[in-house]
C-alpha cells in the first residue's frame, strides 16, 4: 500500500483540505508524509505590476516555512511520521509541477496528495494548473482535493 505520501501544500484552503486527506491516509496505511512547499515567483500578474522579485521571493519563502510548520504541527499531533521540503522555483506552473514530480521521484513517493482550485475558462488558461501538470506528467498516483466551499459544482 502507501508507505510514502508526498503532500504538496501552498497554504490555500484546498491544500489544507489535502493535508487532512494526507493525515487520514497516513493513519490508515501507517505511511510517512513529506510536506512540500514550492516558493515561486511565477504569478502572471506580477509581470504587469513590476514587483521587486527578490523581496517577493524572500516573503514567499518565509510564508512557505510557516505553512510547512503548520502542516508539521497537524501531522505531529495526529501521530504521523513526517518531514518537510521547501523548494524554490522561478517560472511557470509547469516548472512548479516538475519540482513536485522530481521530489516525488527522489523520495520514492507512493502517492502525491495536493489541492486543486478547479479554475476554468480564461483564468485557468492564464494561470495554468500545477495539479493538471502533475497529473499529466507523473507516473505516480495523484489524489486531488478540491475546495467546494465556493458552491461551484462539477
From TrEMBL:
UspA domain span: 1-146
Source organism: Cupriavidus oxalaticus
Family according to the record: Belongs to the universal stress protein A family.
CDD domains, A to Z: USP-like
UniProt cross-references to InterPro entries, sorted A to Z: Rossmann-like_a/b/a_fold, Universal_stress_UspA, UspA
The protein, known as: Universal stress protein
SUPFAM superfamilies for the chain: Adenine nucleotide alpha hydrolases-like
PANTHER family referenced in this protein's UniProt entry, alphabetically: STRESS RESPONSE PROTEIN NHAX, UNIVERSAL STRESS PROTEIN HP_0031
Upper lineage: Bacteria, Pseudomonadati, Pseudomonadota, Betaproteobacteria, Burkholderiales
Gene3D superfamilies listed in its UniProt record: HUPs (3.40.50.620)
Top-level taxon: Bacteria
Amino acid at each position: 500500500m502507501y508507505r510514502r505520501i508526498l503532500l504538496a501544500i501552498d497554504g490555500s484552503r484546498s491544500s489544507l483540505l489535502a493535508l487532512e486527506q494526507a493525515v487520514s491516509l497516513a493513519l490508515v496505511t501507517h505511511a510517512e508524509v513529506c510536506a512540500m512547499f514550492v516558493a515561486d515567483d511565477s504569478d502572471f500578474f506580477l509581470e504587469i505590476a513590476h514587483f521587486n522579485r527578490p523581496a517577493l521571493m524572500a516573503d514567499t519563502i518565509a510564508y512557505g516555512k510557516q505553512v510547512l510548520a503548520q502542516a508539521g504541527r497537524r501531522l505531529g499531533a495526529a501521530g504521523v511520521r513526517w518531514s518537510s521540503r521547501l523548494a524554490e522555483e522561478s517560472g511557470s506552473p509547469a516548472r512548479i509541477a516538475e519540482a513536485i514530480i522530481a521530489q516525488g521521484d527522489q523520495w520514492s513517493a507512493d502517492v502525491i496528495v495536493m489541492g486543486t482550485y478547479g479554475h476554468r475558462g480564461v483564468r485557468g488558461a492564464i494561470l495554468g494548473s500545477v495539479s493538471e501538470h502533475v497529473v499529466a506528467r507523473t507516473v505516480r498516483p495523484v489524489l486531488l482535493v478540491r475546495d467546494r466551499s465556493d458552491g461551484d459544482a462539477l
